[in-house]
Sequence to fold (321 residues):
Amino acid sequence: MAARGLADEGRRADALALLVEVTDRDPGNIEVAALVQDLEEALLLDGVDLFAPEHSLADITPDVALRLEYAARAAAEPTVVTEVLRARAETDLRAAATQLERAIDLDPTCAWAHYGLSHVLLGDRSRVDRWSGARQALARALELDPGHVRARRLEAWMAAQEGSRADAEALLVRWIEEVEDDPRVGEAERVEARLDLALLLLLRGEDRRALRLLEDLEGARDDRARRLMLLTVARQEGGDALGALDAALRAQGAGQEGEALPLVQEALVLELFLERPDEAEERWQEVARLGEGAANLADLIQGLRARVRLERAADSAQGER
Fold:
């Protein structure tokens, strides 16, 4: 718990030192070892040189440094723990899947290995069976460890992606309640889960519930741009046009400038003030297209926002038939 508090405060080096002591005493604890790895990655991205000279940031990028370090550890001592950690640091999805399958061979009852395989399969878009394989691996992980926090989070995400919004909402609500004081989960992850829940509520037309949830997150440091964009949508759907525009302006300041931003501003003006919904819908469709596969956070957020607007409009039109 102390290490999690330090990490949430941004004191990553202090948190890492505490957790390294734990892993020294309990080297088979993958949960703690994964937290150590996450902190190492964050520190490397901050420019902190953590590893031996051959993996120095003077010569290679942080992601390569992490991958090489954990590959060396797994080669020196191939155990289920080192193979799972090596896969987590791997940047090649096929290689990561092979490493996780090796971990499963070493210990078929390791829930972390099955969860990791599910996660990797979902990311590999070249596999035609990635969803079925991921579902099977995730089911095995939860069978082995029903309380596996990250597997339960992935379960909710998969339900949402497959269109099972009611199931995804129930799973997210349960997850949020169960991890409230869980030191395995950081504040950033809790905020992200609540924002995912708010999006699901908006897509289902639960504007007031989404608004209360988003307003409860006022002041949260993490995902501020995304929270404000969702708040814009919630207020807009609730009829608070000025509040929506205020949230949109604050979101623009919190996020990065993207190609979609001028279109969003135009759509808002057409929709809220000029009462030209057909033209506004055209702008939202273009924003949604830009959001698909966007490389920057701003356009991804705007794309999500457009998706909400278009899906709500489609549901409304179908209901009127």
Observations:
- The two ends are 55 Å apart (CA to CA).
- The CA atoms of residues 27 and 33 lie 8 Å apart.
- The chain is about 75% helix and 0% strand.
